[in-house]
Amino acid sequence: MAQVDELVYTPGPPPPTRFFGLRFVEPADETAYQEWRAGHVRPFMQFAMYSATAAGACAWVAVVLGALVELRGLALLLITLLIGVLVAGAVIARSPTWQHLLPTWAWLVNLTGGLLALGLTMPLHSITATAACVAMAAYFGLTMFRLTPLLALAAVGPYIAATMLLAVWWHGRGILDRNELVLGLFISGTTLVTGMVINLAVEWTSRRTYLDHLVITEQQQAVFEERTHMARFLSPEVTASIHDRGLMATVRTEMLSLTAVSIDLRGFTAYTRIHGATQMVKVLREYYDAIIEASRQYGATVSGFSGDGALVLVGAPIQRADHTRAGLELGRTMLARVREVTARHTTEAAPLGAGVGIASGECAVGAIGSLSQLEYTAIGHSVNIAVRLCDIARDGQILMAPGTARALEEDPRWTRELVQLSGIPESLEVTIEETLTGPARDSGSEDGAMAGS
User: Fold this and answer.
1) What gap in Å lies between CA 179 and CA 374, rounded to an integer?
2) Which residue of 137, 263, 423, 450 has the smallest Cβ count within 10 Å?
3) Residues 6+ apart with CB under 8 A from 442
4) Strand locations in 132-225, DSSP E?
5) Distance between CA 241 and CA 247 in Å, rounded?
6) Smallest Cα–Cα separation from 149: which of 88, 187, 205, 96?
7) How far is CA 409 from CA 274, 328, 404, in A?
């Protein structure tokens, strides 16, 4: 029976952090985050480079139209060079191969841009103009470029501090009055403080996003592993049905026309008694593998194993019009493959064999049971007949119910016999196909009791 645990996913504990969640305690966790962050911020940096290029182009136009008259030529040259560096940064940002260079490139571009804004506006002796241009550069360094807090401070801090010192120096020389000094210090200081607050908030959010990414990745891995484990016991069609339609959709049963194929080992009781449990497990593992491989070949579903017996459904959950023919072919294939397994392990003291029972008809199919204990199987008269036919089949025999045989083309190898099945009041005309001949025919007859066959 397939055990279904409560459908609630509980993620593992997040990596420990320090500095108010702005750094992971374990170096390996921090390294993994930085690698993830590089790819995460790459699109932001790319658009920031484009935006900074547009800002540089506006500054270039402003100089052409009359700003910085005394330094116009130098300003146009330096701004043009800076625009080229920004465009190169945008190109780098487009390629994941070079994403490791982006933080250093953005830091260098922003530091250069801020110092350029400071140097070109100094001749104006206007602290308002200088602080405004420097604040614009700081806006990109602290927010748009998505630099880490320390790198952003290293980029912006020097030219912000230089602007504040310039305001104090100009005031000492009498170039600025007290109001202008306060204004210059206010603009520069407020730009740095508020920008760093935003930068820290964005970094904190990025780390929360990374933790969510870890949870999602862990959930995806859990789903993958769950599906892998399920696929070991269910056909791919059943596994896909559970995941695509949802568990509750699969719990609902439906009436399907199918062929039930039951197979059981012969002589296994004596074999286990003689060779022990360890050898029994080895044989069963190979036996189960043979049944699963044969079932997948015909798109059938292994409903379940019970000791050395198995029930396979042909036509569920994916319906097929030729389920009767496919059921017989599956029975033949399973016997052939199981025969390869028994040939490797059978002994003279404890010979092994296998028999098959097949019956066709409408059955209720679905995940039968409660929500805490489910088994994908079929319930119906045909399943009961298939299991009982398998019980009396001797080694190498395929026993078919009347409805199954009538739906198939007659085979000259077939014989028919009236049998009485346990729990079935009326006698049943069973069609028998022998797959073995010669001395091997009688091997393992201990567990099968098909009389007169």
Assistant:
1) 80
2) 423
3) 394, 395
4) none
5) 8
6) 205
7) 42, 11, 10
- Residue 319 pLDDT level (bands cut at 50, 70, 90): confident
Backbone angles phi, psi at 406, to 5 degrees: -65, -30
Q: Using an 8 Å Cβ cutoff, are 167 and 184 in contact? A: yes
Distance CA 386, CA 264 (A): 11
Crossing angle of helices 268-297 and 323-345, rounded to 10°: 140
Determine what percent of the chain is predicted with pLDDT higher than 70: 85
Q: Which CATH number fits domain 236-447: 3.40.50.880, 1.10.540.10, 3.30.70.1230, 3.60.21.10?
A: 3.30.70.1230
Tell me if the bond preceding 317 is cis, omega within 30° of 0.
Answer: yes
* Cα pseudo-dihedral 384, 385, 386, 387, rounded to 10: 50
> How far apart are alpha carbons 438 and 250 in whole angstroms?
46
* Rounded alpha-carbon distances, angstroms, from residue 153 to 95, 110, 111, 148, 242: 26, 11, 10, 8, 52
Per residue in 322-342, pLDDT (tens digit) is 999 999 999 999 999 999 999
Structure-token pair, residue 378 = 């079929």
Exposure of 444 in the CB half-sphere (CA atoms within 13 A) = 28
pLDDT tens digits for range 166-219: 999 999 999 999 999 999 999 999 999 999 999 999 999 999 999 888 888 877
Domain map of the chain by residue range? 13-220, 236-447
Task: Say which amino acid occupies 119.
Answer: G
**Furthest-apart CA atoms within the chain: distance in Å:** 124
The model's pTM is: 0.56
